[in-house]
Inverse folding.
């Protein structure tokens, strides 16, 4: 196989190396493809099963695991900061709702006092109307009495 690779031109050599690297050297089918195939000069004289040609799956798994754990840790921190910000916002919202409730209570008390004052004014206006109607009746009686007395004054 090494002889075949040495006789091919560079382009075909790269294709062959890529095919060999992706098909026979990969032990884990879910692992990503190698980013760059090894040059022919390094593989000349080495057997296919030699450890220099095979990518170490445990090393790549460890690297992947380390990268994933770092990503998960940073994601965890990110989500914790988001959760903290949301909790702070909810606390501020709760405090503002409490202040708004107190303001509403104060407003309700003020409206109640205004309603009581308006009721007192209405009662006073009603009493004034009753007094005015009594006064009008008294003046009407006075006018009738004066009208009856007026002709006697005019004749004298």
């Amino acid at each position: 196989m090494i002889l075949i690779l040495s006789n091919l031109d560079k382009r075909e050599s790269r294709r062959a190396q890529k095919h060999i690297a992706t098909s026979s050297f990969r032990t884990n089918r879910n692992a990503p493809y190698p980013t760059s195939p090894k040059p022919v000069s390094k593989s000349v004289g080495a057997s296919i099963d030699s450890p220099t040609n095979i990518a170490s799956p445990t090393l790549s798994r460890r690297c992947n695991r380390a990268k994933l754990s770092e990503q998960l840790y940073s994601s965890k921190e990110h989500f914790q900061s988001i959760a903290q910000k949301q909790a702070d916002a909810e606390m501020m919202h709760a405090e503002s709702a409490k202040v708004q409730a107190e303001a509403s209570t104060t407003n309700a008390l003020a409206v109640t006092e205004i309603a009581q004052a308006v009721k007192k004014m209405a009662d006073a206006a009603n009493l004034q109307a009753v007094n005015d109607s009594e006064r009008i009746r008294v003046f009407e009686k006075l006018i009738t009495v004066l009208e009856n007395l007026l002709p006697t004054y005019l004749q004298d």
Observations:
- The two ends are 160 Å apart (CA to CA).
- Residues 1-5, 40-51 have pLDDT under 50 and may be disordered.
- Residues 57-155 form the longest helix (99 residues).
